[in-house]
Amino acid sequence: MTVASGPGTARPASPELLRSVFRRHAAGVAVITARGRSGPVGFTATSLASVSAEPPMLSFAIGTGSSTWPVIATGEHVGVHLLGEHQRELAQTFARSGADRFGPSTAWREGPQGVPVLDGVPAWMVCEVVTRVPAGDHRIVLAQVLLGDSTGQGRPLLYHQGRFGGLRD
């Protein structure tokens, strides 16, 4: 294998290399929610991507070790919420293991298909899960958008260098 020369030293592929490279990649922040038998579940995701316009589809990744995975693994519907820069605390709550994600500090309601819908987000969608694709220690979930609302206020929340932040003009 030929490695291009540059300012640093190339390293072999590893989880640490992947993490260090993607810390340099700014990503939008979303919260994925679903209704489980024991109540609502959710997690913070930076892997959200638009997949198809016709039909409208998106994808996101979830670790199989996540406490939310068992519900996503079998559930038919998910809520996808794009967070605004005013929602750093909400992103941290849904990213923290063991947090009371749907406690008193989280404003939400039951939405279409019983999916938990977060209040105050710039945009949200309710989607039907189409398939789950194995990808190492994660699964890529493909979901078709059923309905949504993009009229909320706020500039997008970003994740970069291990921190939540906003756009700079």
UniProtKB/TrEMBL annotation:
The keyword Metal-binding does not apply. One of its GO terms (molecular function) is oxidoreductase activity. Its EC number is 1.-.-.-. Residues 22-166 form the Flavin reductase like domain. It holds the Pfam family Flavin_Reduct. It is an enzyme of class 1 (oxidoreductase). Keywords: Oxidoreductase. SUPFAM superfamilies: FMN-binding split barrel. InterPro entries: Flavin_Rdtase-like_dom, NADH-dep_flavin_reductase, Split_barrel_FMN-bd. This is Flavin reductase family protein.
